[in-house]
Amino acid sequence: MRLLGLARGMTAAEAKLLAVLGAGAFVLASTYSSINVALPRIQDEFEISLSALKWVSIIGAIMVASLSLSFGRMGDLIGRRRVYRAGIIVYTLGAGLTALAFSFPQLMAFRVFMAVGLAMSNPLAGAIIAEAVAPERRGQAVGLYASFQAAGQLTGPTFGGIVLDLAGWRAIFVSYLGIGVVLCIAQQFLLKGAEERRHEAFDYLGSALLLVGYPSLLIAFSVGPGSGWGSPLTLLWFGIAAVGLTSFAARELTFEKPIFHFRFFRSAAFCIAMFTLAVASFVQSPMTLFAPIYLQKVLTIDPFTVGLVMMALPVSTLIAGPVGGALADRYNPRVIAGLGALFTLLAVLLYSRLGVEASVAFVAVALVLIGLGGGFFRPASQVAVYGLVERKDFASVSAMLVLLQSLSGTLGATVLVAINEARAGGDDAAAFTSGQQLAFTALLPLLALAVVTSFFGLGARKPRQDEVPAPSRAASVEPRG
Q1: What would the pLDDT profile of 55-104 be if each residue is shown by its tens digit?
Q2: How many Å apart are CA 311 and CA 109, to the nearest integer?
């Protein structure tokens, strides 16, 4: 079996595994991106403010980042496939319940339920792939999985818009309920396999501290621009976050079986790989925030054209992901990650020079370069990370990757918006452009450091032969008769 003609060299079992996990990634990403299309209708029906409405969108990111480490550790203990399948079931049920919400509090409660399912499945997918696919094909598999995510992000708004016009916002969730049911049934047959339980302690206190600290940090970043960074409300949330996260760090450093492994950071290669991934999210998140505003506010482009231009990023990621992953398998991952960082540096260098009369083509080129960069250094960095840890910790490491990228993306958007607002000093196009130029120019030293550390830092070793999955594991995705 060949997955869309791209899973070259993979066994039939590996291709089937990637197909079912990729379908899950597509559905999850598509649902997440399609919800934003329905926000205006939801706001009108429940008569809520814009500040309240934004929580419909961001609650998913908050819960995923807060719970991923806990579910990652749970997957390592009781079985990654088991937790992943349960997550898809929870997410699907949440979609059906959301369609039945008849008040805004109900809607938010069901969205939290969906987010819990997403937090259960999102970090486990990467770990399942890393475990079941042979190390020499791991980068290709990770890149293909990223392409499924990019395809979901690309098609979600279009699908959501069509369903919204035909049947209303509730029909979007009903549609994903039906798709989710089919996916759950398929996974029961294709995502099987015996999994050993590890009788080790679970860090409930650490999980609770993270669930308090990390959402408080994101809430502080959310209310800061509106209430003021020095306002009592913002300082209160920062204070809660500081107490929660400091206590969490102290707990993880002393607990015998933590959900966040600080010991991994003793490896310089591990630190470099994680740093490169953090920079990727730190840069891409503000780019997707600023570019649509710049295109409409400064270049006065119509919304439909803006949508087409913004497609350049996920399309280029969709194409580059498998290529970057395959190259990471064949060559030193640090070199491929360095090329990705270099693409991103060129993208930001170009974007930081755009003025009030720039060509739309330059924006599109910058987005393509950002997408190519992500398609190269994300799978390469993940290959490096998985090659540096033991197989038993794959789910915990995958959860750390999810947390790192979420935190970095939030920080990137927040920092660049703050720089833009401090420099702009006005609401006209020229002021916005000036602030944007300063904000993205400030990223160049960080990206240059990422390029240097990726190319010349302590690179990840090649996978050992004893890391190759046992035949029984690779075959565990085959249906049972």
Answers
A1: 777 777 778 778 888 888 888 888 888 899 999 999 999 999 999 998 99
A2: 32
In tens, the pLDDT along 215-250 reads 888 778 777 767 777 888 889 999 999 999 999 999
- What residues contact 94, with CB distance under 8 A and at least 6 apart? 110, 111, 113, 114, 115, 116, 117
Name the residue among 393, 412, 403, 162 with its Cα closest to residue 283: 412
What span, in angstroms and rounded, lies between the C-alpha atoms of 315 and 372?
A: 9
Residue type, 422: A
Across 56-88, b (16+ Cβ under 10 Å) vs e yields beebbbbbbbbbbbbbbbbbbbebbbbbbbbbb
Taken in order 359, 419, 406, 280, is the CA torsion positive or negative? Answer: positive
Cβ proximity of 413 and 419 under 8 Å: no
pLDDT tens string 373-404:
888 888 888 888 888 888 888 888 888 888 88
Q: Are 260 and 400 in contact (CB under 8 A)?
A: yes
Give one word for 4, left, alpha or beta, with left for phi > 0 and alpha for psi -120 to 50.
left
